[in-house]
Amino acid sequence: MCKEGVCFHAEGISKIYPGTKALDNVNFDLLTGKVNVLIGENGAGKSTLMKMIAGIEQPSEGKLYMGDEEVHFKDTTEARKHGIGIIHQELNLFPNLPVYQNIFMAREKKSGLKMDNKYHKEQSKRILEKLEHPIPVDTLVGDLRVGQQQMIEIARNLVEDDLKILIMDEPTSSLSEQEVQVLFKIMRELTAQGISIVYISHRLEEIMQIGDHVTILRDGKYVADADVKDIDIPWIVKQMTGEGKSYPKKERNINWDKQEKVLEVKHLTLPKSGGGYLLHDVDFDLKKGEILGIYGLMGAGRTEIFECIMGLRPEHTGEVYLNGEKMNIKSISEQIDKGFALVPEDRQREGLVQTMDIGRNCSLSAIKDYTKAGFVDFKKENEMVDSQIKDIHIKVADKRLPILSLSGGNQQKVVIGKGLLTHPKILLLDEPSRGIDIGAKTEVFDIINQYAEQGLSIIVISSELKEIISIADRVVVLSNGIKTGELMGNEIQEETLVLASYKGHHGH
């Protein structure tokens, strides 16, 4: 099937987009039956390389080989015929269809002229049990949590019998620790069957745990490759960035006790539709210029807090005070007028308008600031967008390019920029660095710190320990909808956070 343990080889691959060279003469070998990790900062060209192997994009120059045979994939269907599957970071699911139809989409089995739905359901059930996610196969995908949807995306690729190569682009970014371990077990089963996995992840600890071989890209060029057993994390970071970089904690000498409270939340409770609570009796406050972290595992109720504050969950109870005045939270537009801005976790779906260009996406939410009598003042819009792009270092060849031509990290900066254009007093950031690399993270954190220094009060939700430790002045920990801890300054450490986040589990 493949020569000397290499089942796929890319030679001298370049990809040129208008204004950027995403890949520059890259050679890449895929080792058979191994987890081949691809590492690089945002915009390094990882996803572009993957899209070529999967037939989503075609190289501008260079050749692709499977075994000794040169291959050209004009689309994903053709790549799939060669046994290549891809699991995207941005979920490609149909929310209004049930689980089993999503799993068999474009791979349906027919008996006679009819769809063999009995077979589809049985197979879907079998695969989900194997994934340790026995989700009822009639459930609509739109009703599932992001982590569960990710499992459906994975299941879709496991129905293929002749799978040879499986590409996983950030498959764990929305999974809990437990779900990650299940996924790793399945990856090991697949590699044991001789399937080659290409794995893109920003979580370096994970790479060391699951990876066999690592290839590093930087600015569209190949930098290095090595077996995981021969390297360590500092080596990886050094290759990726060209120098060691982790995000240092900013020391801020502010007497928080004396600082005024901008927001106070008391007894916040959100009932679950089937009984029980998503949030139960949660209290916290936010001070002027403070960066408050909210930490917890999947399903702890982090995002729900934001939804209540932003008026997306009218069924909540409890009190919310803004500058000492009790609020009557009715709608999201009203909350924006009162000075709240939300940057959602799922930036593709909720944060960006994909058909608009970069500049338009930046300026959308504040459009009323430069609309006169219903007409947009384009000159003013342009000036605002330019200063915003400069302000938050968006790497962009041309602000009129489509938004999806930006790397994940830069898309994220656009979403944050968009939130800031409404000049909020309180900024809510839900997983601001999900799926973005160390370099872009550092920039996103710099932006967050810079605005906090200017007196903006910020709440950041994050499921990444190192991130919350490096950015938050204070952290509220949630577990199963209950507040299980509040940490300040030096108390904010990995162990204390983890311990608090598991309280309330294990039947307590």
UniProtKB/TrEMBL annotation:
<keyword id="KW-0762">Sugar transport</keyword>
<dbReference type="InterPro" id="IPR017871">
    <property type="entry name" value="ABC_transporter-like_CS"/>
</dbReference>
<keyword id="KW-0547">Nucleotide-binding</keyword>
<keyword id="KW-0067">ATP-binding</keyword>
<keyword id="KW-1278">Translocase</keyword>
<protein>
    <submittedName>
        <fullName>Sugar ABC transporter ATP-binding protein</fullName>
    </submittedName>
</protein>
<dbReference type="GO" id="GO:0005886">
    <property type="term" value="C:plasma membrane"/>
</dbReference>
<feature type="domain" description="ABC transporter">
    <location>
        <begin position="263"/>
        <end position="505"/>
    </location>
</feature>
<keyword id="KW-1003">Cell membrane</keyword>
<keyword id="KW-0677">Repeat</keyword>
<dbReference type="GO" id="GO:0016887">
    <property type="term" value="F:ATP hydrolysis activity"/>
</dbReference>
<dbReference type="GO" id="GO:0005524">
    <property type="term" value="F:ATP binding"/>
</dbReference>
<dbReference type="InterPro" id="IPR003439">
    <property type="entry name" value="ABC_transporter-like_ATP-bd"/>
</dbReference>
<dbReference type="InterPro" id="IPR027417">
    <property type="entry name" value="P-loop_NTPase"/>
</dbReference>
<feature type="domain" description="ABC transporter">
    <location>
        <begin position="8"/>
        <end position="244"/>
    </location>
</feature>
<keyword id="KW-0813">Transport</keyword>
<dbReference type="InterPro" id="IPR050107">
    <property type="entry name" value="ABC_carbohydrate_import_ATPase"/>
</dbReference>
<dbReference type="InterPro" id="IPR003593">
    <property type="entry name" value="AAA+_ATPase"/>
</dbReference>
<dbReference type="Pfam" id="PF00005">
    <property type="entry name" value="ABC_tran"/>
</dbReference>
<keyword id="KW-0472">Membrane</keyword>
